[in-house]
Amino acid sequence: MKRLQLHIGLVLVLLVILAGLLSLFWTPFDPIQVTSYNKLLAPGWPNLLGTDGMGIDIASRLLVGARYCLIVGVISVGLAALVGVPLGMLAGLRSGWVDELVMRISDVVYAFPALLLAMLFAAAFGASTMTAMTAIGIATVPAFARVARAGTVQVAASDFVLAARAAGTSKWGIAVRHVFPNIAPLVGVQASVGFAMAILAEAALSYLGLGTPRVTPTWGGMLRDAQDVWFIQPIQALWPGMAIALAVMGFNLLGDGLRDILDPRLRELK
Amino acid sequence: MIVQIGKKVGVFALSLLGASILIFLITNALPGSVAYVILGTDATPEAVAVLEAQLGLDRPLPIQYLEWIWGVLSGHLGVSPLSGDHVADLLSERVGITAWLVVLGILGSILIALPLGMIAALRRTKWSGFVISSLAQVGMSIPVFWGGIILALVFAVLLRWLPANGYVPLLEDPLAWLRHMILPVTTLALVQSAVLIRYVRSAFIEVLNEDYYRTARAIGWTPLRALFRHGVRNAAIALVTVIGLQLSSSLVGAIVVEKVFNLHGLGRLLLDKVSERDLVVVQSTVMLLVLAVLLINLLVDLSYAVIDPRQRGKRK
User: Fold this and answer.
1) A168's torsion region: left (phi>0), alpha (psi -120 to 50) or beta?
2) Alpha-carbon distance A59 to A240, whole Å?
3) In a structure prediction context, what are the per-residue pLDDT tens digits for chain A, which is 270 residues long?
4) Which of residues 213-242 of B touch A (CB under 8 A)?
5) Does the predicted model carry a pTM greater than 0.90?
6) Does the beta-carbon distance from B290 to A112 stay under 8 Å?
7) Residue A159 CB partners (closer than 8 Å, separation 6+)
């Protein structure tokens, strides 16, 4: 059953990645060019999922949307991990006031939901993909810092770290050679779950009109367009929402599945 | 006990201070941005300087910060330089809708998640338990705005049973109020309950492995009776934490749901002001929402002592 979770997650994530890669080379129709004919077509041939209010093929826009969802996920989660993991390790290795300070600041940032921080950023710096990614990344830093700190505290108490210290390895050496490799799997699980949250947050921002500009095909933005025409072509609201849900579910299941595999190892560490 | 409460309130106050500084720094990160928003991006630097002096934006940041915080504490949240509206008036007009959404949404999600999560725990090895868990997993992946759009499509656009947007105050026409609230509240409740079901399930599975549960079953109690009499209070500690987190996330959910159903609550206000880049209003609205989140966290922390007698005597 647990392997099933992991496998479904892997398949869904791979599907999103393949769709994103495919859109770099080929889409059935032009995903951006507005046409004055073929507006709001029902699903059929050759527009498999129909066309939107600007006469653009929806299937093509969905494929390109996968690419943007991956870019946003990679950059915001990458930013969060790059800042959060070293901070968490620092807090875990240097207990005392450093630990207290890092974790208190992280608690303050944690009180800001990603969407709220992104709205604040959009007001201050203007709405764009860049501000959305930065805000989502910053809002996700505390999650990485907590995971990294908890893992580091566990690893730091183990015998091999004691041995390394006795052998004269520097603190820096212990962090890089012993602590990081051991907490990397935990960070991986967090990255997968964080990816799912980043996709949700970015979709919400694009839906609200505070993320990526409307010409660029994003799943959230497509839902916003679909809502404008839901009395004429209600079915259009189905596809982008389904794409978001499947991508989010993929990364969530992947994270859960990885955690279950790691579990025996975590118990061993204790 | 009192020391513990004092410490928690202290952490709350410090977090509030930290959050307010963070909000202030972000909204004031670009110098002159308020003036440029009012005058347009092609305004001359001289015109910007004159306006900044008029609005008091040329003074040092720490002074502006203290003035804002003093205003927040004494209820004067400032005046929007763009529209001339008092921020406090704007907020008090809008806060009602959002509060209804969040409170009813959370109540709804508990009503859905508690029984389903208990069943999923009791039947975790059977098909019905698996189906509930899988549905919760699917529900967790559904963005709240898509859930709202689908509900509105089915019940408002296709079946025409309920209105798809708008709001009527409760005191004006209770029935119309109810009809307008059903879809937004159901949206929030369904999406939130998906997360909650998973936690209820694992909290009750823990109870099922406890000795007191086995004893209760051994003396002939039915599983449900044993769970209700002993399980609920023990599971409550884990669940209060989650419901606290849920309250914060449904505040954010409400922002999005207000957009889906075109409700003019706090979220809609924030959205409009962010689009206009009216920083004065945004700054105070975000502060109010973060205050709500931190206050909920504090109450959750304090409630442990009430729920769990074991925590009362403990001192750290």
Assistant:
1) left
2) 9
3) 557 888 999 999 999 999 999 888 888 878 777 777 777 777 877 777 777 777 788 888 899 999 999 999 999 999 999 999 999 999 988 878 888 888 888 888 888 888 889 999 988 888 888 999 999 999 999 999 999 999 998 888 888 888 888 888 888 888 888 889 989 988 999 999 999 999 999 999 999 988 888 778 899 988 988 888 888 888 888 899 999 999 999 999 999 888 888 765 544 443
4) none
5) no
6) yes
7) none
